Amino acid sequence: MRKTALFALAALTPLAFAAQALAADGAIATAADAPTNVEALIVTGEITYRNRTEDAAPVLSYDQEYFQRFEPVSAGDAMKRVPSVTFLSDVLESDGARLRGLDPGYTQILINGEKVPGALADRSFFVDRIPAELLDRIEIIRAPSANRSGDAVAGALNIVLRDALTLNGGYVRGGVTRYNDDKFAGNAGVYWGGEVGPGRLLIGANVQGRRAPKEKTSWRYKTPGGALDNIEVQTDVRDGTDYSFNASYDVAVGGGDLTLEGFFVRTDRLQDEDSLEYRGGIRDNANLLTANDNDLDILTDSWSLRGKYVRDMFGGRSKFKLGYSELKDDQFEFEQELEFLRDAAPFPDADRFTRDETRTDLKDSELSAELEHERDIGFGKLSFGVQYVDKSRDNLVTERRNRFNVANGVNGGFAYPAPTGSWTDQGFGKVAIEETRIDPYVMLNGKTDLVTWEVGLRYETTDTKITDDSGGVGAADRVTENDYAFLLPSANFKFRAGDNGRINLSVGRTVRRPNFDSLQPILLKDEYGDDQDFIGNPNLKPETAWGLDLGYERRLPGRGVAGVNVFYRQISDLIEEDLLSVDRTDPAAVKRVYTSKNVGDGKVWGVEFDLSTPLTFIGLENTGVFLNYSWLDSDINDRYGSRRFNSQSNYVFNVGFIQDLPSWEAAFGVTYRKQGNAWSRITLEEVRTEYGGDLEMFIEKRIGERLVVRLTGQNLLDSSKDEVFDKFGSIQDQIDRKHDEYEIETEKAGPVFQLTARYAF
């Protein structure tokens, strides 16, 4: 509780500045658009469509009202409705966003336009950690600009939180969610924005119950088409609560505008998996092979404090930024298993007990600063500046194992015995990674009657230091240092095409830094199976990419917009797993060690279409339709031949409508989403993944000018995730297609219903 209070205080630090500003001089800072009255935002009878932005870079902007009526739980749930975003998550989960279907590490996740640390080894941020109630809008940034970090090969997703210039007034929110297992979870929140002293303040807090009950079944064979070896029946329940606080204060100070903002998000979650495995697929006690209990307890805290000051000076406009972000992720996982058919005595007599425990303590922090100056040079504006990031990532992983034979008649059935004192340490990994980046840039932009343009050059420098302290007490630390630099040019053009159309053209170079797991020089035993280990390579080079985007966008009658875009990425220095060494000193157990290497090139391309419009042109002004479709493809070569980028779906499709009923002060709507098949090939395993369609709906009733009640239904088609695994004992077996195991797994979850009310005050 003390830690929670501390982080909450950090998130609300702008309140302290607001209090001090009560006595300060100066006028209220104003935005280009006046803050929205809460009544218009919360109790609205208008359908909201995708925005057209005036930036030279291709940006698609979706306001919070675009998603709100379907009551998404998280930013990830909201992203399911925008073009080209896919997920490889379990059913009812939307965590690692895959823009254009690529691995999350290729997508830059921004919060309020700034990078934030993520818990994952690929540097990505789980977007389901941000409650949807915090959102002001989501932006898809398809191409790079010189004033943004270049690690956005697939593009960037900018999660813009509500700030002090967003709301005028307050509202409270409350609701309850019913899941398919007859369990309930509640949610509540309160937000307020308004004038405080000479500035504007926004504060908000939200508590969101989260639950995802699923059922899985796996069928395992020795080879495709062979006899059924065993079947595993599993329940998987993810249960937890998300807490969030945010605050923002905007005030005029010393002739300029000062913005202070902070947020804190806590994820407290338990993932409980229980399974029973049966010989030959015969589900009775005589054929019970194993009973398994696997729990993962997660506590993740993310918080950020940032300040920005903008002032006219030196013949132009200067901007100063300073920020600190931190993510702390503590996880404890145990897996315990009873084996029943090691001898002739079947259930309830267990024969063997095994328990594995893993503790992970991760802290990732970033200190950032930026100086930028912009001035008019006649034919356009010149911007130049420098961005600084000091990143520190400390990761400690400890593992231990306990196993013993169980005497017949003792601890029979599903009673897991207490572990004995004979724990075996499986080693630990303790690695510290420090990265320092200094990235200067220069950018020119301008506008004529026919074209809006922006050209820029960014120079990114990175110094990396990796300290491996996994040797234990008395062992010397292993320190590896590396540095690299890249020139990243970019150009964005937006051409006028008639009164309602425009053409976007963008070209630029981007970069993807290596995964932390790939960099860490830690030997992971049996990572790819028995006697097949993996060790990281701290000398990896980042991947780089040249990209092209070409699109056409047209304004439709009313407030509608339609657009089509084609994109291409040529990626160099791809990072893949490769064989490092082979130890044949023991012919009975040949030891192979794999590592990560820069191995070659790949390319990604696709076509993206989006439409959101009222049906005013056929007399249905209170009917809004939404549609987006992305066709995605790629090519990469590995030791086995040509393939797509791992786990890239071949398409993603969204369609839906909202019908407003003004005379009834009500509305309803439906959306349908379908994500195409994905295929992945790594060392010793290949996976094919298929998702069912996802149908959602809402019904709302507005009561007066201040209250709206909304009923939503999600996963109404009992969507499933189906996977096929081809598993091999060695690389040569994989080449020769000699299976070690062939597995088919299906995962399914039921409908989720949510009743929510918002009241504006």
From TrEMBL:
The places in or outside the cell where this protein is found are: Cell outer membrane
The protein's topology relative to the membrane is: Multi-pass membrane protein
Query: What are the alphabetically sorted keywords of the record?
Result: Cell outer membrane, Membrane, Receptor, Signal, TonB box, Transmembrane, Transmembrane beta strand, Transport
Where is it chiefly localized?
Answer: membrane
Sequence ranges assigned to domain TonB-dependent receptor-like beta-barrel in this UniProt record: 246-691
**TonB-dependent receptor plug domain mapped to chain residues:** 56-155
Look up keyword Nucleotide-binding and say if it applies.
no
| One Pfam family matching this protein | Plug
Q: Would you tell me the Gene Ontology cellular component terms? A: cell outer membrane
Taxonomic path: Bacteria, Pseudomonadati, Pseudomonadota, Alphaproteobacteria, Caulobacterales
What InterPro entries does the record point to? Answer: Beta-barrel_TonB (IPR000531), Beta-barrel_TonB_sf (IPR036942), Plug_dom (IPR012910), Plug_dom_sf (IPR037066), TonB-dep_rcpt-like (IPR039426)
Source organism per UniProt: Caulobacter mirabilis
Q: Which domain of life is it from?
A: Bacteria
Q: Where is the signal peptide?
A: 1-23
Q: Which family does it belong to?
A: Belongs to the TonB-dependent receptor family.
Please verify whether the record's keywords include Transmembrane: yes
- The entry's protein name is TonB-dependent receptor
